[in-house]
User: Fold these one by one.
Assistant:
Number 1:
Amino acid sequence: MKQPWIHNAKTDWWFILSPPFLILLVIFLFQKQIQGLENNYSFYTWLFLIVFIDVAHVYSTLFKTYFVKGEVQKRKLLYWGIPALSWILGIALFQFGSLVFWSALALAAVFHFIRQQYGFMRIYARFEPNNWNKKIDEIAVYSATVYPMLYWFKTPRAFTWFVENEFDWLKNLPDYTRLITVIYAVILTVWILKTVFEVFKTGKFNIPKTALIAGTYLSWYFGIVYFNNDLVFTFLNVISHGIPYIALVYIREIRQKEKHQLERLSVFKSVLGIFLFIGVILGFAFFEEVLWEVLVWNEHFSLDFHISENVLQFLVPMLVVPQLSHYLLDGFIWKKPKKVS
């Protein structure tokens, strides 16, 4: 069968499909060294993983939205309304306390991460009919991502999504871990059997879709359930999410478009343009994190600014606008326009 690559086998493998497999291999081979990294080089791991991948992937969205000539004009309400809504919503949540604010943002982030895996699965299954095979794939993606999060809610973890105790309010729920573990195992088994049966029956094997689902199972299970380590979680969570997203944006919005379609963005289409593209998103990411560090966190560096609580209730939601806008916009910008019959 013709494989449904987004760009080609080589690009898809290295930048979209391989991250969870490669990172997991590194983790198993160098567990002691990773612990040393966490203890002795926390600034550099933060800079590389959080700033240059996690935050940077948020700004790669600009190349599909605000940087595209005519895009904002076509959907003004969406592109101006979402940031405004994000700030207003953030301010409203902050009135209930910073923990409520960060808990809500963490849940939004989790939903965004889950939906990205589902979205990639749909891309790689785009040539397949809407039958029970695809339904099982969809259920598998959700089980691969939802189960580890439900497990996290009920089990003490040595890491956070944003802040300490962000999911503590969910610990009051009845203990469901045994039940969901059984359901998870059943769904995984059914998906494996379905995949094997499909290969023997049809002789067709969708390589990228299968790798995507398998990688999702591995990265979420080992990152959240199997290991209980902050850096391991960050490695698997951030790299497996951020790198594929950045790659998808570049492939779809720059690489696969003609120069006349790109207009001023055509400068990013060359080999040098790839580095320029990376430089732009890293620049935005670093600038945002400098603001966070100086004005709010004061963890990695500080200028000894003192911000009052009255100001923070407006400032923190404002700093979150790019991130929350990214989560919300993603629900719109990747949808295919409906065909007019």
Note: Residues 9-332 form one domain.
Number 2:
Amino acid sequence: MKKIIMMLVLALVMAGYAQEGSIKPKFQAFSGALLKLKDTDKPGTLKFSLKVDVAPWAFQAIGEVRSPTGDAESIREALFEGDLYAVLAYIDNSPVEVNGEEYQVGLFDIMLYYDDEPTTIRNLKFKLLPPVDDDWSKSGLNDALSSGSLLGNIWGGKYEKAITKASADPMDKGKLKALKRKKSAASEESEVSVSDSKKQRMKNMADEEDQPKKKKKKKASRGDECDDPSLTPKEKKRCLMMKKKK
């Protein structure tokens, strides 16, 4: 019984910290064009999937969405007309760095907005994608899910301003492609720089190896000067005598 009471007290304390602002969620909006919808056997409900694999994101969110009107077809129409978008909530305290790039793994909630109105989300699950699908990254995700749950309903109230700001500039396919091109160009430039540096080092090493060989050749040519076929026998004899005197 004492253990149960202690756990309840601890939960209340943690909830108090969360409400006081020690846990500050951030928000990132994504265009509805990145969403995939599927039918379910539940009236007015669709399955949804959001997959993003460009740094700082590498995740897939899967869940069920129900429109405010309870009409599943209205969600499809909103998607077709560009009136459906997603807003991801995350905690920016545990980014994971991979190959010089940071990835946000502190995801804990998501909301789909239909005509700027929040829908109802159920059975939400997050899956981290490569290169952050390791145990360390997953532990960061689990911590965020636990911490985020202490905030209660975040879709409105004190976070409404931050959500509205994020919704005004959603990440879409065009922006994701631009990010990929930018990262690819930066990677190629880095590879070229490394390659040029390597070539220069190899050239310097080759030059250093050639220098002793050149010196040896010069010494050899000096040692054979009396064997020059252009010398007369008398000149060769004189040359040999001069060498002996040296």
Note: The two ends are 108 Å apart (CA to CA).
Number 3:
Amino acid sequence: MILHIREQKKSRTVASALGNNHSVSGGCLGKCCKARDLSCLTTDWRMDRVYGTCYCDEGCVRTKDCCFDYFTVCPANDCATSDWSVWSGCAKPCQPSVRVRIRQIKREPSNSGEPCPRLTEHAGCQEYKDHQANHCGLNSGPAFITSMEFGKGRPKHDSYGNPLHPGFCVEFTLESRTPHCTMENRPHTHWMRYITEGFTVCVACQPPAMRNNSSCQGDGQEANKDAPLHWQAVGNPQCSGTWKKVQKTQQCNCPPQHSFVFI
């Protein structure tokens, strides 16, 4: 967009310099074309003040053979999108899964405007009721974790408006992780890069992952302090490892990049 503003000023300067010598029969009026279109041409002054064949297509910006008035007659329009939709439910209940949100294109880019950003975003999740609204049973598997951002969207009150239990936090020292945690480059897996051996991480246990206001799957409350426990990142089942429990605290006090939630 900055380039187009600069070129618009240049276009006005060229038009002023041409003055009465410019023929109104040429120019880009009514000729704004998409992509590189070699038929989208006329004979007029170019931006470099050379008179001859010039173009009014989006490709002329790269080849620098636009007609002098291209950036005035064919201003750049960047892609415009709607806001993100609300997150969908998890694709599968009672197990680590994926949720999605989307946004719509409100205006397509034109005249070399900025292209549209990605329109779909995925993130790991887990729901605690099946399709019949029955609570899922807990098992003794690994701790399933995701970024703290997921916890911010959790409800803070029950269906009657009563505040839910605030939960608690468990600190762990990371012992190992698989290399897949840093190999993924999808937006919803970026948080996994901060899972690093030797660091202390905080994992929040909150409703609805917390059962009976006392525990989350894999939180290590029943394990010995030195026992290695298993964890798995939701959104990338190949990102997993072991950690050792340090302590249970009322609130998580780790840096944001080392703060996660049980799901």
Note: The first strand starts at residue 41 and ends at 45.
Number 4:
Amino acid sequence: MVAPDDSPDPGDVKGILHPGEQARHRTLNRLPVGPALAEFADWYWVVRWDLRGRSAYRAEVLSFPCVNLTFERSTLRTGGFVNGVCTTKYVRELSDEGETFGIRFSPGGFGAFTGADVAALRDDSAPLTQLLPAAAGLAERVLAEPSDDRRRVLVESFFAGRDRGHDPRYALVAAIVRAMSEDANLTRVDQVTDRFAIPIRTLQRLFRRYVGAGPKWVLCRFRLQDAADRLAHGDAPDLAVLAADLGYFDQAHFCREFVAEIGMSPTEYARRSR
């Protein structure tokens, strides 16, 4: 069993755009991972919606640099899927009713566990059995089970039966991504290479192999997630100070990048998120 302290924080909505608005259209629950995936995944997540008789809703996410394995039932698609790192804003139209039971792998975790070419999945998804043929029938069993806890047991049992060896390169990638996420002073790739004493080309190869996107993109994505989260919760100072806090050259650079990724200005985003 996973210790209570390892349970995912239900209030952590970083990466979810307009979190208050989304909460009015769907439910979100998270479950901790078990021993089989503890080293490689962050948590299980469950999204359900029932919009019958209501207009469809566009749910938007600024995704983490992670692979998500999903078991889905909706008017869009049904089955098991492996979803690669999404380098643009992810948009999913929710209509009628549906659900997704997912596992968010840690950055680099899916590639380390399965040996899959994560870069080939960037901005794309593939049927689960295309990458993991041994998972034939797993999606049907998971979706037939009404209990989320039982679904988690089914998935954990599948992965517990797979061989995997210790991969020191994955441990290094995980440490680097963790530092990028947690240390606001890391804003440039050269700072990362200096801290971890690693050549830039080696860093780029490791990120391509395990994360599926380059280190510069990962740094930028974490900064934009922080910006959107602070704006949505009213925790941001004026934009010039926010830009400086996040390591941008100036406010104009920050605003251009925010608009390019999220589709509206920081001021408009903050207003809509109230």
Note: The chain has twelve helices and eight strands.
